[in-house]
Amino acid sequence: MKQVLQMGSQTVPEIDEALLRKLLPPYKVILHNDEHNSMDHVVKALLKSVPQLKKQAAIKIMMTAHEKGKAVVTACPREIAELYQARLLSFGLTCTIERDE
Question: Is the dihedral of CA 50, 55, 57, 60 positive or negative?
Fold first, then answer.
């Protein structure tokens, strides 16, 4: 599927989503539950590490990880996933990335 975007007076070229997905395959950022960090700390770390997250989404991710052992934080190109992973790890959280099939 191709998209044409209007940005003000400029038209952005068509984007072939299948090609984009092939060139920049998405990776999932996965938060794992631990017994060392408080729920409040996890939510704050999520909000500081992944800028597009809102507080309610961060709470939901934290609760899913707490209840199910892990939760998907976001899916994005690998380099960005690695950045988010590094940020979350810097807060003492357990976080992995894996290809989103």
Answer: positive
Residue written as token pair 């007076």:
9
The per-residue pLDDT for range 23-82, each reduced to its tens digit, is 788 999 999 999 899 999 999 999 999 999 999 999 999 999 999 999 999 999 999 999
Asked whether 31 and 70 are in contact (CB, 8 A), the reply is yes
Task: Return the CATH fold of 24-99.
Answer: Ribosomal Protein L30; Chain: A, (3.30.1390)
- pTM metric for this prediction: 0.80
Domain boundaries defined on the chain = 24-99
